[in-house]
Amino acid sequence: MTKVKTVNVGLIGAGRIGSFHGESVARRLVDAELVAVADPAPGAAAKLADALGADASYTDVAEMLSHPGLDAVIIATPARFHTNILVQAAEAGKAIFCEKPMALTLEDADRGIAAAKAAGVPLQVGFNRRWDQAFFEGRAAIDAGKIGAVQLIRSLTRDPGPFGGDPDSIPLWTIFYETLIHDFDTLLWLNPGAKPVEVFAMAGALVRPDARDKGFLDTAVVNIRFDNGSIAVAEANFSAMYGYDIRGEVFGSGGMVTMGDVRRSSMTLFDATGVSNDTWRRDTDHFVQAYTAQLASFVEAARRGVVQNAPTGADARNALAIALAAIESVSRKQPVPVS
Ligand SMILES: NC(=O)c1ccc[n+]([C@@H]2O[C@H](COP(=O)([O-])OP(=O)(O)OC[C@H]3O[C@@H](n4cnc5c(N)ncnc54)[C@H](O)[C@@H]3O)[C@@H](O)[C@H]2O)c1
């Protein structure tokens, strides 16, 4: 039997999700090794590398890209750095997993895609919901024709409350670029082959109305019309007091699939106060299986040299085009075409 080669992975960005992905590579995947961590914040990379048993830590990404034997990188920096680091990693010949959003402009998305193509390296993007069991089965039912022609689609993200962020440190339009970008990918993925043609979005600051004047938005609804006639809605809010609520629904000519459940498990408590369920409170709890499976898929892509059955740079660009149209729609208070 041929021995499977271990893929040597370097993590770029040792923050919240980077630490979790690093832990997935080091502890949850059997055919990959976390060999290096890079982060410019003093001590951040060294601390994580030490905790996870990685060989080396760097404060400079270029230096990490020269780490001996490095096969692949995970980019988990703040969004505004993604494209430049992606291009740097492609030029160094590394397989790339890039967190969402891959880019903040279509020009940057094209630049990233072109760099990966020119270097011949696989580029996978962090739309983890595709690996959630319910969403995966929903897409399979659609592919099998079980609900007929897709007519209405819905995807929602309600982050767990109470909202504790500082509106002053959250970049403008984050709800579209970073939150709803997941829903835009989900809507595209659940409507195979359809192209978005028109977007009408509304948004507000209902959680932090005091920050509205600075342009902060924490609540949004986005309507999307596709070229196959289907109509979709994505919605988001930053403060669901009952938990981390991620759901999807596709209604077709022959039926419907629904996906997602805010309840942690089927354990239901019956007591003197009534009947209750615990709910998901963190993305890294809810999606531990999906996050791990997406990295297993990436490790396979690094080994094969090609991304298969996983979101690519082109998928990231398609979701970004909807986000940009939504931002324009909110700014102009009218429906806008999707570029
Ligand atoms: N797929 C998901 O469900 C999911 C969940 C959370 C975050 N994310 C995405 O992951 C990215 C990171 O989010 P986060 O919450 O972990 O952010 P974070 O702020 O917690 O961490 C970012 C880290 O990147 C480091 N960094 C900054 N500039 C860098 C550079 N040039 N090179 C290397 N490291 C650099 C920072 O020092 C910090 O440690 C964002 O794009 C976010 O949208 C995705």
Automatic annotation (TrEMBL):
InterPro entries xrefs: Gfo/Idh/MocA-like_OxRdtase_N, GFO_IDH_MocA-like_dom, NAD(P)-bd_dom_sf
UniProt keywords, alphabetically: Oxidoreductase
Pfam families: GFO_IDH_MocA, GFO_IDH_MocA_C3
Domain Gfo/Idh/MocA-like oxidoreductase N-terminal: 7-127
Domain of life: Bacteria
Every GFO/IDH/MocA-like oxidoreductase domain range: 139-257
Keyword Oxidoreductase: yes
UniProt similarity note: Belongs to the Gfo/Idh/MocA family.
PANTHER family, per database record: BINDING ROSSMANN FOLD OXIDOREDUCTASE, PUTATIVE (AFU_ORTHOLOGUE AFUA_2G10240)-RELATED (PTHR42840:SF3), NAD(P)-BINDING ROSSMANN-FOLD SUPERFAMILY PROTEIN-RELATED (PTHR42840)
Name assigned to this protein: Dehydrogenase
Source species of the chain: Agrobacterium salinitolerans
Top-level taxonomy: Bacteria, Pseudomonadati, Pseudomonadota, Alphaproteobacteria, Hyphomicrobiales
